[in-house]
Amino acid sequence: MTSNTELLIRRITPEDTVPLRHSVLWPDHPVAYVLLPEDASGFHYGAFLPDSPVAVAVISLFVDPLPLPSSAPASTSSPSVHVRAARFRKFACDPAHQGKGIGSELMRRVCEAAAAELACGVIWCDARASAAGWYERRGMQRFGETFFKGEIEYVRMQREV
């Protein structure tokens, strides 16, 4: 596992996220497929190894309310709906560096940023169903129904920060 002292996590530009977003998440699609209309208003982070200018993992964070379940009435009494929420998107780690704790540390730091810098009480994401267990081991819980983006199954995940 990579030592936290060897890993630098810092804010990056939206453009700096694109190479990993594309190569890891959607390599069979055009690069434009990994660009988000809200990228300019997001907070983007990269994880860097010592002496490397290239991020080995990236994640993008946005203030975004928790989605209401499709069966929920317009006014709901669920307390989590009224908590300021952050959503992370386009979380990607270079396959050569997976399994070393880099993604876990990046996610931990982004959860801290959601609470401290964005004043959010919960963080959530649309996770690929194949990765849901990874998120659960890091304290996230499934909510809502599964859905598909193209042929890939997704589930929503959340946790308090």
Strand content bin: 25-35%
Low-confidence stretches: none
Mean of all residue-level pLDDT scores: 91
Strand order of the largest sheet: 1-2-3-4-5-7-6
Protein model, in words:
The longest helix has 15 residues, at 102-116. The protein is globular. With 161 residues, the chain is of the alpha+beta class. The model has no long low-confidence stretch (mean pLDDT 91). It has a seven-stranded mixed β-sheet with strand order 1-2-3-4-5-7-6, with helices on both faces. It has three helices and seven strands; from the N terminus they run βαβββαβαββ. The chain has helices spanning 14-25, 102-116, 132-136; strands at 8-12, 43-48, 57-63, 85-93, 122-128, 141-149, 152-160.
Considering the chains and any ligands shown, give keywords for the structure.
161 residues; alpha+beta; seven-stranded mixed sheet
Topology:
Elements: E1 8-12, H1 14-25, E2 43-48, E3 57-63, E4 85-93, H2 102-116, E5 122-128, H3 132-136, E6 141-149, E7 152-160
Parallel strand pairs: 4-5
Antiparallel strand pairs: 1-2, 2-3, 3-4, 5-7, 6-7
In brief, what are we looking at here?
By secondary structure, the protein is α+β, with helices and mostly antiparallel strands. It is built from three helices and seven strands; from the N terminus they run E-H-E-E-E-H-E-H-E-E.
